[in-house]
Q: What sequence folds into this?
C-alpha cells in the first residue's frame, strides 16, 4: 500500500518525475561501471590492491566533491550542477575506457566521480527546493528509488554490452546514458533555486 503512494507523488509533481528519470539514467551509468572497472583494470596486469585503488578513485572524488558541489549549486543553480555533473561524468567515464594503464584510469575515474557527486548533490538540493516538511521524506525516498533502479540495472547491462562488444564498450555506454541524463535535465527539469 505504501509503495502505491509513489505513483501519485510522481504524477502530482512532474519536476520530481523528470528528476527521477534523469537520475535513473545517470545511475545506470554508475551501475554499468561497477563490474567493468575491476575487469578492465585487470587487463593491465596489475595487483588486486591496484584494482581496488582504481575502484576507490571514484568514491574518493565523490567524497571531496559533495560540499563544493553544494556551494556551486547554491550559487549557480541546481540545473547547472545536474547538467555539468552528468557531462563531467560522461567525459570521465568514456576516457576511462580508453586508458592505456593504471595512472590514466585513476585520473579519469576520479573525474567521473566528480561528475557523479555533482549530479547527486544537485538532485538532493532540488528535492529540498520542491518539497515541504510534510512530504520531504516521501519525495527523497522516490528520488532514492530512481537512484537504486539505475544502479541495479546497470551492472547487468554493462555485462551484456561487454560480452557483445568488448570490455571498453561499456564505458562508451556510460557516456551515452550520462549525456542523455544531461539532455533530459536541460529540456525537462526546471530550475528550483
A:
Amino acid at each position: 500500500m505504501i509503495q502505491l503512494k509513489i505513483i501519485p507523488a510522481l504524477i502530482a509533481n512532474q519536476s520530481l518525475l523528470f528528476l527521477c528519470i534523469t537520475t535513473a539514467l545517470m545511475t545506470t551509468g554508475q551501475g554499468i561501471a561497477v563490474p567493468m572497472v575491476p575487469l578492465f583494470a585487470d587487463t593491465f596486469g596489475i595487483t588486486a590492491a591496484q584494482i581496488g585503488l582504481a575502484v576507490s578513485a571514484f568514491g574518493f572524488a565523490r567524497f571531496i566533491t559533495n560540499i563544493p558541489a553544494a556551494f556551486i549549486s547554491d550559487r549557480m543553480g541546481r540545473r547547472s550542477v545536474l547538467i555539468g555533473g552528468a557531462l563531467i561524468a560522461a567525459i570521465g567515464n568514456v576516457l576511462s575506457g580508453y586508458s592505456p594503464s593504471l595512472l590514466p584510469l585513476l585520473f579519469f575515474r576520479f573525474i567521473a566521480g566528480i561528475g557523479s557527486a555533482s549530479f547527486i548533490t544537485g538532485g538532493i538540493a532540488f528535492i529540498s527546493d520542491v518539497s515541504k516538511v510534510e512530504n520531504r521524506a516521501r519525495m527523497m525516498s522516490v528520488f532514492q528509488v530512481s537512484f537504486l533502479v539505475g544502479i541495479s540495472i546497470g551492472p547487468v547491462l554493462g555485462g551484456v554490452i561487454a560480452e557483445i562488444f568488448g570490455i571498453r564498450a561499456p564505458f562508451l555506454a556510460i557516456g551515452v546514458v550520462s549525456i542523455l541524463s544531461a539532455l533530459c535535465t536541460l529540456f525537462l527539469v526546471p530550475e528550483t533555486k
About this structure: Residues 136-165 form the longest helix (30 residues).
